[in-house]
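Next comes this protein:
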Amino acid sequence: MGSRRSFSRRLGVPGRAGVALFAAGLGLMSPFAAAPAVAQTADAPAGTWATPPPLGPGDAPPADTGHPDTTYKKKNECVQRSLGQDVKINFRPWGQDYLQLDRAQQIVRAATGSVGGNQKVAVIDTGVTPHPWFQGRVESGGDYVAAPDNGAQPGLQDCDGHGTEVAGIIAGNPKDPQVGFIGVAPDARIVSYRQLSENYAKDDSPQQPSAPPSGGTGAPPSGGESQQPPAGSSNSQLPPSSGGGTGSGSGTAPQQDNKGDNRDLAKQGTAGTLNTLAQIIRGIADSHSAGVINMSVDHCRAGTAPGDIQEGERKVQAAVRYAADNDIVVVAAAGNVSENCPQNDQADPNKPKSIVTPPWFSDDVLSVGAIQDDGGVAPFSVHGPWVGVAAPGTKIVSLDPAEHSTGLANLTIANGNPSPIQGTSFAAPYVAGVAALVRSMFPHMKARDVVKRLKATAQHPAAPGGRDNFVGYGVVDPVAALTANLPGDTGNLSLPKPVVQEAKLPPADGISSTPMIVALAGTGGGVAALLITLFVVHTIRRNRSRSSPPTK
């Protein structure tokens, strides 16, 4: 993979025609981009585990009710900042350099005047804390867990610390040259929907305690620098952030293990269902409140029988089809390996051990696998015929999700110990951000064509059809996605019109033309003299030949 990356980097913007020829040489790509799962399993019998059964004429997404489908109650306190020593994070995350985001942002800024400023990205997650580095660009979408208990608008409380980190990768903007971190589309707006939480559970009993005893289990304390405060403390008593960073600290429960983010939608003892996920997607499509949806939320289960699909999965399938048909780019994390979601390492890719929703519905969802900083596939990234592309998913740096924080985080608390933030949850927002840039650059491009473009310009793996079950069509390439000329682009793109540059010739200096006339006259005289000389020499030779006696 390293050699392919070097090759694509050498191409650069001037080589975009080469990118187009490369994509065309991989099979004219259009049949693969339209349905990657079908292309990968073309020889498989109909109704395999890997291919979901098609929607029927009566399958429709549920109407958006705008509220949870059951009553949830908080079981753990929300994420808090670490009380340990602050460590400034001023370095640039490796994913930004790997994807050449600086260059991609320069291209979009030169063409449109901003970097995604005309785009909205819906983040369906654990909510988004209005971190100051969003500059007020976070909007309330809705809350399908519970009404925020901190006075925030629906969707703008993040008890788990997950959604804020996801949104930060998309649109965080420190506006500080000394801070290396920046979101992919730093001028875009975020529309936040709180759809799941591991700090909430179904309220089955009115006598259920509002919070567990100290040291109880539940959702993560923070994405990087968090721990539960000591008894009697409050947010206002926490020390201020020192420019962003993480510190040592401990927490009451893990967010993830060494395999990556292990949260799972519809998991026992947590908040969030496939039904409310489908409702939110339907609501976004009806209102068109965003042009891109990021879902770093997954439901994983074992494959049982060919063609088998659960009721909630069917609702999500109908919802993502509805959204894609209504011109919305739907991006989802490919899923992380866990005890309940084993890796798809079986011999037959058409019979996966684990089925992940929404990525399973690859006709309408662009699912994103994770790579690590050496370019290899992250071991926790779930494989499958539905994987569309890949992006950085390890050693993540993003906005600290704790309330009142003003900095960054690069650690999460796992089993009381800090560990790096990682997971396909954080690869997906890289791709959602690039989709927002493409939609900003080409405002008339349809959603399905945006997805095709991201696949066509990705750094393709050396596999049949330019895709495999690990990284799909390859690592997303923002610069190529913004600049490449691809087959079928004619009449489809609203390319920025080049500015005509007025010629800036030096003014006449008023110098006399006599020297030029004299020079030309002298040159003409010399030529005439040469011609006369040649004529005379030729005449003399001809006369001599006539006067010479014949040879005997």
Notes: The CA atoms of residues 128 and 156 lie 5 Å apart. The first strand starts at residue 72 and ends at 74.
